[in-house]
Amino acid sequence: MTVIETVARTTTTARPATERLLCHPRLPLAACLDSTRPAVHVWECAEGQVNELASVGAESAPYDAPGWDRLERTPVVAWHPHDPLLVVVTEGQIIRWTPDGLSAADGFPPGAAYQNLAFSPDGSTVWASPSSDPEDTPWETSDAIALASGHVAKGRWWDTAAVEHPAGGLVTAYSSDQGATLVLFAPVAGGPAPTPMRFLRRALILDADGYEAPLFSPDGRHFAIRGNAYDQSLDIFAFPSLRRVLSTTLGEPSPGHPYPDEWLEQNRAWSRHNIAFGGQPDVLWIGTPAGALIALDLAEQRATEYDGVLSGSGVTALATTSGGHLLAATADGGLALLFLRDATRRPAPDAAEQRAAVRSFLDSSSEVPGDGDLEAHLLLTDGQRTWAEDDLETFTSAEPSDPMWLRLRAAVNKVREERT
Length: 420
Hints:
The chain is mostly beta strands. The protein contains 5 helices and 30 strands. The longest helix has 16 residues, at 404-419. The chain is globular and about 65 Å long. It starts with a strand and ends with a helix. The mean pLDDT is 92.
């Protein structure tokens, strides 16, 4: 049984709530995305206190439209992996925050309108998409930028996030389309910056789009994915096997179109950024609209609900700080730093085993070419079945229980077969 202690709690400047928390991987810093306007608030979470340090876009006009317009105005943020440096893309500007204050970010191509941003694990390269080159086909290429020199190299398109495995040596990113989302893996390349991501043949495929960034457990043995554009889905996969160990829906599954108003209200109550791994590597924490925290123990296959920790205010965002604390944002504008005291501590992740898992994954695959049709080179799995591109080219018979992307592929192939 875990005892949850509230180390600190405060009211944020983001009213009524923070919609996303992004913690620095090594420093006691957190970026809080405002739910009411395109603003980012930087907080320090140290020595049992949470203190606001700065804000980017606090005077911006409020959001006034849902859907694509809202998405386009939502800031894109990325922490430097080692330094206290936050880069924010918002309202046509690229801004950097450091403890010295706010300034225009140098080194980026002029006129860049990035929707996705991430630092390479060594911090020397910024990966950004879509490409800033007006001659490139939109949504097909990306930039790799060496901030020290301003040099830009081209890479394949990616979206949402580039997340490093806890052992290093590997990052994962998405390539999303309305029909399906590819979870791609790339080795961390050495050499001089800029170094674009070069993806491996082994990839995971998810039905539909609209997924949030993958979240690795501290030992790297699992990763969780929240989504999607149609459901409040939660999927957990084992690494390096990519075997699916859990697939569920938070709240009621989608009833299909047209959506009842009651279901839409319930669906919108759930945050898309409400999961975090704490100190226990096999325990995923889930925040609920009712203000409860759920500990999902993957090893014991058990879920335990904790009420009253957040005074009944719904969880709008959840994250883990560099010190292993949970950081929770709530619907009443609160920000709470939580310490998890576990009665039975499990062994700490073995660094050698983590590195061996990454090596085995890298050794089991090879890089795809830097251009051309990406999917033509992929070995895909959904966590249960595996397909090479040759398999999918001739696949014409799908079951009603198959994912939509596979049923669409079968239908398209069948039409082509009938025409020949």
